[in-house]
Design a protein that fits this description.
- The protein is of the alpha/beta class and 361 residues long.
- The protein folds into two domains: 242 residues, Type I PLP-dependent aspartate aminotransferase-like (Major domain) (Aspartate Aminotransferase, domain 2, 3-Layer(aba) Sandwich); 102 residues, Aspartate Aminotransferase, domain 1 (Alpha-Beta Complex), CATH 3.90.1150.
- It contains nine helices and 16 strands.
- Helix 3 packs across helix 4.
- The chain starts with a strand and ends with a helix.
- Bound molecules: 4'-deoxy-4'-aminopyridoxal-5'-phosphate.
- The site of 4'-deoxy-4'-aminopyridoxal-5'-phosphate has 12 residues, from helix 3.
- 4'-deoxy-4'-aminopyridoxal-5'-phosphate binds next to helix 3.
- Catalyzes the reversible conversion of 3-phosphohydroxypyruvate to phosphoserine and of 3-hydroxy-2-oxo-4-phosphonooxybutanoate to phosphohydroxythreonine.
């Protein structure tokens, strides 16, 4: 079976050279006589793997030295609780900006840990089709932090600017767009991301946090989710997700070999343009998101005649275009086109959509 074009929102397609290297090193990692899966996390081999992964990530994102990188578990949904547990204690309250289902979930979870205020929301009639504009953000200068989601994986709404929050630390859920383009880390207090989109495989959660924000955890915070404790232990307070860290390290090196995040941005812009240009001229397929806020990572789209959804998906599958079904909460279709999706995959999808429209439109 040849490899398919996999449009899954995550776990998602990975670069083939990374998978090949992992396969080559599976039984004997560089003369160690064992697989990375079998290594003690405290042995010199794995310690070097983790240190190298961190160094590559720091180089890719130009992470300033006063930021700590943590390799944790629990995913983005875990961070919805772990962020407030660690940060809200600074002033006792926090602001949340809503641009879709994921930021809404973050705010709902955070409300268990202290008073949360919605500083802005683009919700209209139960849908989120744009980023709230900077002028709509009504920020509380006394908030411990402001949280927003940089890319709404379900709704396909992405924030392409860095919010200005004055002195209030900015917290960003970048689960689905980290490493898709350069960002200025120094503008953030904390960035988190589940790894299973652009970074690697599931099981690993990246947290990049400014050091002065550590040390405010609520007393009930589990030690394993206390950023300061994990920072002191080099993310080894508990056994870290070793194999996922290894895969992330291979992905970072691969992205570096392709020219880093500027190259990723050019590649992702080109791919997204192919799909959105087609959608905008189509009379059969559509995407309702405000053009300036359309995600370059996740492109939801709808057929004019939804009774053909299943026919569309079956035909796509037959051509090796898989995992296009939209999120169960919104229906329709969704093409996730992360870093590792080649432009050929997007072109093959558009060719199929054009033919489908000609036949059924
Ligand atoms: N935030 C965003 C933006 C996501 O896309 C996801 C997963 N799709 C999550 C949070 C939750 O991630 P996890 O399932 O790894 O906890």
């Amino acid at each position: 079976m040849p490899r398919v074009f996999n449009f899954s929102p995550g776990p998602a397609t990975l670069p083939e050279p990374v998978l090949r290297q992992a396969a080559d090193e599976m039984l004997d990692w560089r003369g160690s006589g064992m697989s990375v899966m079998e290594m003690s996390h405290r042995g010199k081999e794995f310690m070097s793997i983790q240190a190298e992964a961190e160094a590559s990530l720091r180089e890719l994102l130009a992470i300033p030295p006063n930021y700590t990188v943590l390799f944790l578990q629990g995913g983005g949904i875990g961070q919805n609780a772990i962020v407030p547990m660690n940060l809200i204690g600074r002033t006792g309250r926090a602001d949340y900006v809503l641009s879709g289902d994921w930021s809404k979930r973050s705010a709902d979870e955070a409300a268990h840990f202290g008073p949360i205020r919605i500083a802005a929301s683009s919700e209209e009639g139960g849908r989120y089709l744009r980023m709230p504009a900077p002028s709509e953000w009504k920020l509380d200068p006394g908030a411990a932090y402001v949280h927003y989601c940089a890319n709404e994986t379900i709704g396909g709404v992405e924030c392409f600017w860095t919010p200005d929050t004055g002195g209030v630390p900015l917290v960003s859920d970048m689960s689905s767009n980290l490493l898709s383009r350069p960002i200025d880390v120094s503008r953030y207090g904390l960035i988190y991301a589940g790894a299973q989109k652009n970074v690697g495989m599931s099981g690993l959660t990246l947290v990049i946090v400014r050091e002065d924000l550590l040390g405010h955890a609520l007393p009930t915070t589990p030690s394993v989710f206390n950023y300061q404790i994990q920072a002191k232990a080099d993310s080894m307070y508990n056994t870290p997700p070793t194999y996922a860290i290894y895969i992330a390290g291979l992905v970072f090196k691969h992205v570096q070999s392709l020219g880093g995040l500027a190259a990723m941005e050019a590649h992702n812009r080109a791919k997204a343009a192919v799909l959105y240009d087609f959608l905008d001229q189509s009379r059969f397929f559509s995407n309702p998101v405000e053009p300036a806020d359309r995600s370059r990572m996740n492109v939801p789209f709808w057929l004019r005649d939804t009774s053909l959804d299943e026919v569309f998906l079956k035909g796509a599958q037959a051509r090796g275009l898989v995992q296009l079904k939209g999120h169960r909460s919104v229906g329709g279709m969704r093409a996730s086109i992360y870093n590792a999706m080649p432009i050929e995959g997007v072109r093959a999808l558009v060719d199929y959509m054009r033919e489908f429209e000609a036949r059924h439109g």
